[in-house]
Amino acid sequence: MALRPGARPEVKRKIREAAEAEEREFYERRAPADWLADLAPLGTDWRKPFLETAPCLVVVFSLDYELERLADGTERPHKNYYVQESVGIAVGMLLTALHTAGLATLTHTPSPMGFLRGILGRPKNERPYLLIPVGYPARDARVPDIGRKPLAEVRLVV
């Protein structure tokens, strides 16, 4: 599900507020000290203004099971298999396509993410998987220099 540029700014505001509430709880109460130490060089905290200022938000949901409506009006679940793997592969291709198109993305995973289902009115069998702000980076954006491992450190299995 994508929230297009200019579409429903109040929805983006609700998403930001709910995500920041989860993130504040994480940063102030749940995150282990070593995790916070690892995040410190990146300069991140619970504030997530990009969720409201990004021109587009893509919210990816996984569908762990289908719901079949029976003749008597009840629903019966049918499990979907390899959901996490399939959604992960699809998201990787989406991020690659967006990057190739010259857009900047950020994978954002506030935990828990159940608030997205409520805000976006999604059914109970859909589980939020990933929130992706999409757009062009701000002129003053600071991108951490994370770097890649040298080829000699990458193990190839043949």
How would you characterize this protein structure?
Helix 1 runs antiparallel to helix 5. The chain has one domain: NADH Oxidase (3-Layer(aba) Sandwich), CATH 3.40.109.10. The model has no long low-confidence stretch (mean pLDDT 90). The strands form two sheets. It has a four-stranded antiparallel β-sheet. The chain has a two-stranded antiparallel ribbon with strand order 3-4. The protein contains five helices and six strands. With 158 residues, the protein is an alpha+beta fold.
The helix tally amounts to 5
Overall strand count: 6
Uncertain segments: none
What's the helical proportion of residues?
25-40%
CATH fold description = NADH Oxidase
Please sum up the structure shown:
By secondary structure, this protein is α+β, with helices and mostly antiparallel strands. It has five helices and six strands, in the order E-H-H-H-E-E-E-H-E-H-E.
Notable traits:
158 residues; two-stranded antiparallel ribbon; 6 strands; 37% helix; alpha+beta; globular
Helices, strands, pairings?
Elements: E1 2-3, H1 9-30, H2 33-39, H3 50-53, E2 56-63, E3 65-69, E4 75-79, H4 83-100, E5 104-105, H5 114-120, E6 126-135
Antiparallel strand pairs: 1-2, 2-6, 3-4, 5-6
Helix pairs in contact: 1-5
